[in-house]
Each structure stands twice: as C-alpha cells, then as structure tokens.
Amino acid sequence: MSKIYDVIVLGAGPAGLAAGLYAGRSRLDTLIIEKGQDGGQIAITNEIENYPGQILEGESGPSLIARMTEQAKKFGAERVSDVIKSVELDGDVKKLVGNKGEYLAKAVIIATGAFPRPIGCKNEAQYVGKGISFCATCDAAFFEDFEVYVVGGGDAAVEEAMYLTKFARKVTIIHRRDELRAAKSIQEKAFKNPKLNFMWDTVVDEVDGDEILSKMIVKNTKTGELTTVEADPEDGMFGLFGFIGLLPNSKLFDGIIDMENGYIKTDDNMHTNLPGVYAAGDIRVKSLRQVVTAAADGAIAAMQAEHYIANLK
Hints:
Low-confidence stretches: none
Mean pLDDT: 92
CATH architecture of the largest domain: 3-Layer(bba) Sandwich
Largest sheet: 7 strands, mixed
Order of helices and strands: EHEHEEEEEHEHEHEHEEEEEEEEEH
Strand content: 25-35%
CATH superfamily of the largest domain: FAD/NAD(P)-binding domain
Shape: elongated
Radius of gyration: 21 Å
Oligomer: single chain
CATH class of the largest domain: Alpha Beta
CATH topology of the largest domain: FAD/NAD(P)-binding domain
Helix content: 10-25%
Number of helices: 7
C-alpha cells in the first residue's frame, strides 16, 4: 500500500516551498511534487528588489529560490519530480496519480502557479525558441548585440527589458497603450536607460522569417495602421520577448475545484471548496501576485492543513 503523507504540496515555487517549510517545521510528513525546476516564474526573473529582507543587493530569482529549496529540505520535506495526470480530492485521503506512481495524503496544497500568456500574434508558435522567448534570464545571452523587442508594459515587462539592455544593443518596449503600467520607481529607471526605446499604442500582429525570426508586422491600436519591422540585414534576426501576464496552471482541477477565470477560489485562509484542499500563490484568485504574497499564502495553507489534520478522526 502506498504511503499516506500528512501533506502533499503540488508545486515548488515560492508558495509551494514556503508551504513545505512550514509543514516540515510543524513535524508533518510532507511531500513536495514538482514537474520542472523549482521557482516557477521567479526562477526566470533576473532581479528582485521588493522581497523584504533579501540578503544581497540585486538578488536574483534563482538565488532566492535556491535558499528556499534548502530551507524546505532542512526541515524534512521529501521531494519527487513527477507530472500529475489526475487527482481524487474527496474524502479523508486524497490521491494524486502521476507518471511515476500514486501519491496519497490527508491534505493537499495546490501551488501550481501560472505560465506566461502568449503574445497572440500570427505564426507565434512557429518562432518560439527561434527568436520568440518568455524568459529574459534564460535567453538574453543569445541576443548579445542584436536588437530586441519586449511586449508588455507592467512591472515584469519593464524590468526584464532593462535586464536585456545589458546584452542587446537596442531594446524597444511595445505597449498597447500610451503609458506604462509598471510601478513609478521602475518607470523612472526605464526612462533614464539610453538603450531603451518605446513603441506606444502598438501590438504585434504577425511574425515571420526564414527559419528564425527576422520580420514582424505591428498594428497601431488607435489607427489600425500596419507597419513592417525587419531585422538589420547584418543581423539577420531579432529577439521578441513576451511579458503580458500569466495564465493559471489549473487545467488538472477543472470541474473538481471552484474557479474564477481559471484561478482557484479560496478564502483568506487558503481553503478551497473541498475539505483538506488548499491553494496558494499565483494559482488562486487574488489581487497581487508577487513572491512575498506567494510565500505568505504557502505559510497560511500549511498551518491550516496542520489544523485540519489534527481534527481528523
């Protein structure tokens, strides 16, 4: 018979790792299941300036996550790398079925996070990895001394655009409005950066090229005018990075847990509509998706799971 854990945490981003840490410190038998690398969205973020008490100036996402991973491990949280295909979340024992086997627990904390929203232009899928990217930290070095375009106007888009200026010779932010949505402190830095340019009231309509991305058609959101942007002939290509929000990684729970626009509904204590099942971090309905709020969600979910387990017959 499969081992029955006290808590299974699904996902190893800031929410999942915080949940694993708090569950482990509470002496709960805890398993963290992650299908990829630890960290979720923060693992592909170069600079973090808004996490309280960060150790180093210019903290990177990977370095912060590495410490979170070690903390969870220190307090006894077990780890499995697997992709969960189906779940049974009713009853006192929850079952998760993955490629490597079945996992049982008294409580489940869902911290599966979210993934980048596609740019939404024609031929996009054809050029992902061939000029189109959603991770500046991962792919910036491939575009050293090339021209790069960044789609978006929020905090992530502007911060990653500034990071890309360390590599590209020119970076242009393409934004559908005539002003940025990023925090004022971030905007101030961006407008002072001599390598940053702005293409206002614009969206990417289509991308093209021979094998790699070398041409795109952009559309003015106010006039509808189409403009063709081509790579410098000497370069033969350019980079296009998308940072226009996230989509919840919640398909596994369709029809099982109450949701709103794909995000899992919870109360302030991370309870879902199912007893013993909690959601934490970017996966749940909330007003702010940041590392600090994800970590707080994970801590709350773990403590609520402890209370739930203590009251099981």
